[in-house]
Structures are given as C-alpha cells and as structure tokens.
Amino acid sequence: MLQPYFQWMNDLAVSKAIGESIWIYPLVQAIHLVFLALFAGSLLIVDLRLMGWGMREQPVAKVARDARPWMILGFLGLVATGMPQLMQNAMREYFSEFFWIKMYVLPVALIYTFTIRQRVAMADESRVAPAMSKITGLASILLWIGGVAIPSRLIGLFT
Amino acid sequence: MADLFKPLHDLFFFVSELPSSIELRESQYVWSLFEVAHVTSMCLFAGLIIMMDLRLLGIGNMQSPFSQLQKRLFPWQMLGMALSAITGSVLVFGDPMRFYANIFFWLKMLMMVIAGVNAMAFHYIAYFSVDAWDNARVPPLGAKLAGALGVALWGFVIIAGRLIPYNWFQNN
Q1: pTM score, whole prediction
Q2: Is B142 on the interface with A (CB under 8 A)?
Q3: pLDDT at position B172
Q4: Tally of CA atoms within 13 A in the half-sphere of A83 that contains its CB
C-alpha cells in the first residue's frame, strides 16, 4: 500500500545525494548512535528506578522529571538522523520485516511512555504497588530496547 | 615503525587463523548476534555515563546530588562496560585482521584510553571535594571539564566504532 510512497522517497534528489556522498550516510549513522546513547540513558535511569534499582534514594518523580527533556532531545535527534537513512534506503526498508516491526512498536512505545509510564512515574509512590512500578519499568525497556532499538540494528544486518 | 607493530600484527594474524575465529566470521548469525548485543550493551554503558556527565556539567539530573548518581549508577555502568567489552572482544576475535587494518578501530581504542584517564583524573582530583559541591547548581570547573570531556570522548568512541565498516583509508 505504501510502496509508491517509499518509491517516491527513494527517488528524491536529496535521497540520491545522500547515497552518492561517501561520508554523509556513515556520519548520520554514527550520530544516530550518539543520540541513541542519550535516549537510552534517559530512558534507563527512570526504568531502573521504577524497577527499584539505580537511583533508589531519589523519588521516581524527581528522576523522571529530570530525565524527560533529555529523553525528548534524544528522541528528536534520533528522528532527525533516522529520516535521511530511511530516505536513502527507502526500498530496502520497505521490504525489511525488521523495519516494519520497528515502525509498529514505535508508536506503541511512544504512547505508552507519555501515558501509562508517565502517570506511574509521577504518581505518589505510596499509592503505587511495587509490582506495578516494576512492570511499568520492565515494559518500557522491552518496548524501546527490544521492540525498537534491536529490530533497528537488524534492518542493516539482514537484508 | 613496521617492526614496532610486528608483534601486534603477528598476534592478530595468529588469532585470525584459529578455527574458532574462522568459524565465527563465517557464521552470519552468531556474528550479527554479537553486533546487536554490543550496541545494546553500549546503550546501558554510554547512556548512564552521559546521565552522570550531564550532572557534572550542571545541565541535567540537577535534582539529584552528584554522589548519588555516581554511587547508584556505577554498578550499572560497570555491567554495561563489561558486556560491551566482552561482546566487542568477541567481534575482534572473529575478524582480527579487519580490525588490525582499520584506522577507526584504533582511534576508538585510543579514545577509550583517554576517556579512562579522564575518569581516573576526575575521581582523584575533582571528586575528592565532592562534599563541597554535591548539591551545587553550578559544579566547579574541574567537574564541568570532566563532564564535557566524558561526553565528547565517549561520543567519539561511538562514532569511530560505527565508522569501522567504512574503511576509507585502507590500502590493500
């Protein structure tokens, strides 16, 4: 259904220009990973805390509020450096199962992060069952790392 | 120069001839599995290092005292480092000659050594007086410097690592 759109993206002059330069694409890939580290750090510091590990002496809400702007910055950086990679490889991505796994899990992870996870992290801790908190953190890691980050790496390895 | 690097070259070459090394680089799935595991470990290690460095710079995680970030994230950073080191070593073991001839690989190694020195220097100089600035909105210059260097150096390690497959400067 989306194939014509991907073909159009694939054939854009700017997509071709990215492909023709020997260093733009590799550098974009590399900077994508730096933003991944920033994103993952601000994700994990909160998820570990939700699971009762890491920053145990701080309230979850404090850790989460501090991490939020960096998580958003990391995410925007990932999108900004992800788009050129998608454009340059549009047809390869279209036919990659891992790309579609990533694209289906990504909106779920985003909505989850800004609804359920946000509410649990900001709630009065005495009113959140430890098990609920643990599951919230674990689900976040599974969605972002297992459902988005790992399939992303597999796109390039199995095509 | 060539003589200086000969023992290193011979070691890498020796490893590359081992049956287990050959098997690893010819097995597409096991190799890829370790690449995925290496990036995932990097998320844990570099991610939490950056979280600590942002606090040193005075721009992130400011509601937590630095000593708590240091103390509570340290075991996770070490776990991430151990996993990164193990998975990375397996990758080098599986294709030593490719890494031996790669400028980005050696740049990455160099940056890691400098990042390690930076961490040690911070630990023995600025961290010594942590009680005085643990809750400060503006950490002292030494702490800021260590934080800025940490982000920059680990950023370069990640970038150089990702550029290893693109060996523009290799002449066979």
Answers
A1: 0.96
A2: no
A3: 47
A4: 7
